[in-house]
Write a structure and sequence with these properties.
Helix content: 40-55%
Distance between the termini: 43 Å
Number of helices: 21
Order of helices and strands: HHHHHHHHHHHEEEHHHHHEEHEEEEHHHH
Strand content: 5-15%
Shape: elongated
Number of strands: 9
Length: 482
Amino acid sequence: MSDLHTLGQRIRHYRVAGGKTLDELGTLVGIAGSQLSLMENGKREPRLSLLTRIAETLGIQVADLLSEEPPTERAALEIQLDRLQRGSLYSSLGLPIVRVSRGMSDDALRVIVGLHAEVARRAREAIATPEEARRANTELRQLMRTKNNYLPDIEKIAQEMVAKVGHVTGALTHRSVSRMATNLGFELVHVPDLPHSARSVIDLANGRIYLPPASIPGGHGIRSMALQAMAHRVLGHHEPRTYAEFLQQRLEINYFATACLMPLKQSVDFLQQAKSDRNIAVEDYRDAFGVTHEAAALRFTNLATSHLDITVHFLRVGDDGAVSKAYENDGLRLPVDVTGSTEGQLVCRHWSAREAFNRTNRTTEFYQYTDTPEGTFWDSTQTGTSSSEEFSISIGVPFAQARWFRGRETEIRTTSRCPDVNCCKSPTNDLAQQWAGKTWTSAKLHAHILSPLPSGTFPGVDDQELYAFLEAHAGQNDAHAG
């Protein structure tokens, strides 16, 4: 059944169209006009038997009353205003409820509804602050920890989509990804002028997914972007109403993309064989499915506990030691701030994630044991370079689990006492005495600190640029499918 306010509006619409007053219709169906008024105002739910009598009296079908569509534009505005005023945001303002009278013009009603919508938009924009983002990200990380970073529902959807295009083994090809898009009613279109703030754009009206040029380095990135765009449709996402919802959707589309690029059955077979051989290596998993080292490491965290009975931790760390991504369910104590957030926090200088930067030869994985207050952990770390920084990707496990991995025989072993500040964060007494008060330096200021995010429907995406892009491409019929 539709919500009570819509139902009430439809009863009123058909009553007025039938030329009957509240009392007249009430008498005909056996209730007082005041009771019928409560129903039309969405304050009382009528029984199905009463709806049947109302429909028969007005010469319509019951389905006409139960439709979820408002009967008129005016009714739609009234319903929208009612919902907005019943929301927690309006309640928090302490303002009186605006009653819609028959004499209120449609224009006045549109203005009131528009003002409410703008207040709601600004509230959403205000909560997308760094503090709110960190809080939401922390909650999401803790939630995924309880799930062992495994989402079986998305795994099932990904398996079905991959199977439909006949993919059986090896790397998922661009052709297979394109066929997956076709099955959803989309074509992949590569363009050089995507909005600066968008990685991809879906044109729902014309059935297109716009992506960067196919010739950009690293084809795996294009496949992943296309799959992430499709995921929004496959997983039934709507426009995010909160920053937490935006982060949840981003996690789900990334999960879907990696589950397609590294399908469940093929991945588990590959990794179980590697475990049997005591030769698990992220670099082998990466090469077998033609993806990035980071994608393979993250995918490993999805499957390690649920399918290999291995607890694990993952870190992506910049060359300054700051965490950009992290996950653990093996007891490793991640560096966190007072809110529990780990993003932006510095990892211990003695951890593999930072020690790997000190190597001269970085073409292969770096292996290390680290003794910590929480126990000894083994890590495999690979360094890489992006357009803005060097970074490291680490996969690690408790000491007892290292027996399943290549590199377990390493003799490199360090000790970390962090979060004890005397471990690696404070200079030695000798250095402090030598240099304290004798230096002055200027810190680097990251440009993004002062750059405001574009404010739009989707966090970080400029609506003006997005809509101008869509308008420019909507009339182009000569785009080639990817």
